[in-house]
Amino acid sequence: MKAKEFDKRFEAGEDVRDALDLAGARRPMLESRRVNVDFPAWMVESLDREARRLGVTRQSVIKMWIAERLERRVS
Questions:
Q1: What is the reported pTM?
Q2: Residues whose CB is less than 8 angstroms from the CB of residue 6 and which lie 6 or more positions away in sequence, other chains included
Q3: C-alpha distances out from residue 10 to 4, 17, 36, 48, 65, Å
Q4: pLDDT per residue over 40-52, tens digit each?
C-alpha cells in the first residue's frame, strides 16, 4: 500500500493495522533493561509494606519512586 493510500485510510478512521508489520516494532527509550541493586533489609521491608498498601509489587514501587524523582529533576 502506498503512503497516500495509508494516510487516506487512517484519516478516514479505518483500521490500518493489517498494513503494518508490527513484528519488529520497538518503543525507543521504553525498552526494559535489567539492573541489580542491593538494598538493606530494613529498606526492603519498608518497600514491601508500601507495595502492600498500594496493592502493587515491590518493583512497581521502586519504579514509580525513581520515575517521580527523575521527572522532578528534569522539570
A1: 0.61
A2: 16, 19
A3: 10, 10, 43, 46, 38
A4: 999 999 999 999 9
